[in-house]
Design brief:
The chain is of the alpha+beta class and 190 residues long. The chain has helices at 11-25, 51-66, 98-114, 139-150, and strands spanning 2-8, 31-33, 40-48, 71-83, 86-94, 127-133, 159-162, 164-171, 178-186. It has a five-stranded antiparallel beta sheet. Strands 3-1-8-9 form a four-stranded antiparallel beta sheet, covered by helices on one side.
Length: 190
């Protein structure tokens, strides 16, 4: 099954990001926007793994979560991969919670490597994907829109509590991916 580990965002934060998407849609660029209820922060994409590996991942998820404290994340900055002037993936970064998120991702990656799930070639970056650019149609208008929103829109962004990490199954369909929770591992609370 195709799986990934992520931080779920509060409905308030998902709604805020959906309003950001609506602003960016004004460019009329050809972008596949992530559905608001599917917006999350991916910690590790594991890809296709068998049921035995899924069981092992559930165990490592519990281990990693057991010694981490709950925290908050705050949205900060809009960007694009590979670069904002040539967007393929549109994302929103975080400032508050970035250190905690990176530590959880690092621990997950190291534990996953011990069970034969190999590390990615690129360093982890705390970001939330909100759209994938599908063509060059109206790209310049999209870039201009991104530039206009970079400093203004996120100043009122809500914080999102992080009290768990979640293992999701991802089923690809013509209408977009369907995410199903396999396991939630709760972080420590004070």
């Amino acid at each position: 099954m195709r799986v990934f580990i992520a931080i779920e965002l509060s409905e308030r934060t998902q709604g805020f990001l959906n309003r950001l998407q609506e602003q960016l849609k004004n460019s009329q660029a050809e972008v596949t926007w992530v559905k608001p209820q599917n917006i999350h922060l991916t910690l590790q994409f594991l890809g296709e793994i068998d049921d035995k590996k899924v069981s092992q991942v559930i165990g490592l998820l519990d281990n990693v979560a057991a010694d981490k404290n709950a925290f908050y994340i705050r949205l900060s900055g809009i960007g694009a991969f590979p670069k904002i002037s040539f967007p393929r993936i549109i994302w929103v970064g975080i400032d508050k919670g970035d250190i905690e998120t990176k530590q959880i991702a690092k621990d997950l990656e190291e534990d996953a490597a011990k069970i034969g799930i190999f590390k990615e070639n690129k360093p982890f970056s705390s970001h939330i994907t909100i759209g994938r650019v599908r063509s060059a149609l109206n790209r310049n208008a999209l870039v201009k829109n991104l530039d206009n929103l970079v400093n203004n829109f996120l100043k009122d962004a809500p914080e999102s509590p992080v009290n768990k990490i979640t293992l999701f199954k991802s089923t690809l369909t013509p209408k977009g991916p369907i995410y199903e929770v396999i396991k939630e591992a709760y972080l420590k609370t004070n």
